[in-house]
Amino acid sequence: NAGVTQTPKFQVLKTGQSMTLQCAQDMNHNSMYWYRQDPGMGLRLIYYSASEGTTDKGEVPNGYNVSRLNKREFSLRLESAAPSQTSVYFCASSEGPSQGGNQPQHFGDGTRLSIL
Amino acid sequence: DAKTTQPTSMDCAEGRAANLPCNHSTISGNEYVYWYRQIHSQGPQYIIHGLKNNETNEMASLIITEDRKSSTLILPHATLRDTAVYYCIVNTGNQFYFGTGTSLTVIP
User: Fold this and answer.
1) CB within 8 Å: B98 and A101
2) Each residue of B24-73: pLDDT tens digit?
3) Which end of chain A has fewer CB atoms at under 10 Å, N or C?
4) A31 contacts on B by Cβ (under 8 Å)
């Protein structure tokens, strides 16, 4: 049972480099999410995709772009990485908007990203 | 703006019940309360959720006050593997709002 798979698990970038974080889910979920977690803090939503073909900004979208490639995959792109984007990035998925708030999100194990 | 308030840390003796409180005084009528935990910076693990009624599953029980302004997560028999950060979350539909959580330490 893979659930939500994130790649890579670790990455070190230099300031100004670009990078795409990959996320795939095998639960046939409609909604997918990207969060970041800074040390000692809870997760903050960057972007989400309520259903295939749609994306929306979350709490902290600046400096990021997303692509919902298909129902399974949702990628997060850093076009020009900055040290302030050093964080742990988590992807999650849930059944979809029809469930309203009655739908748990299932999380991947994260990508640990350091920007020098 | 924080939607939930939790104590920063708590201790619990192994084998005893762990009761983790959460205040969510601004919760709206259609917003669910969720509990997740995170161990060693792994991905958050779903525990339980509810709207109005108390809920129980194989992991825990969730007690929601009648006015829905607070809730308590109960781990009935805490083990060392329950040591983690526990997050109380209000789900607005598309967005989970994580606070800083409660760091629970289960003591042998």
Assistant:
1) no
2) 998 888 889 999 999 987 999 999 999 998 999 999 999 999 999 999 99
3) N
4) 94
Q: For A53-72, what is each residue's pLDDT tens digit?
A: 899 999 999 999 999 989 99
The length of chain B in residues reads 108
Nearest C-alpha in B relative to A55: B94
Residue with tokens 């480099």: A17
Question: Can you give the three-state secondary structure of chain B, one letter per residue?
Answer: CCCCECCCEEEEECCCCEEEEEECCCCCCCCEEEEEEECCCCCCEEEEEECCCCEECCCCEEEECCCCCEEEEEECCCCHHHCEEEEEEEECCCCEECCCCEEEEEEC
For residue B84, the chain A residues in CB contact (below 8 A) are: none
Contact A27, A91 (CB under 8 A): no
Residue of B nearest to A3 (CA): B43
B21-55 burial string, b = 16+ CB within 10 Å, else e?
A: ebbbeebeeebbbbbbbbeeeebbebbbbbbeeeb
**Do the Cβ atoms of A44 and B98 come within 8 Å?**
yes
B96, A101: Cβ pair inside 8 Å? no
Residue A99 has pLDDT above 70, yes or no: no
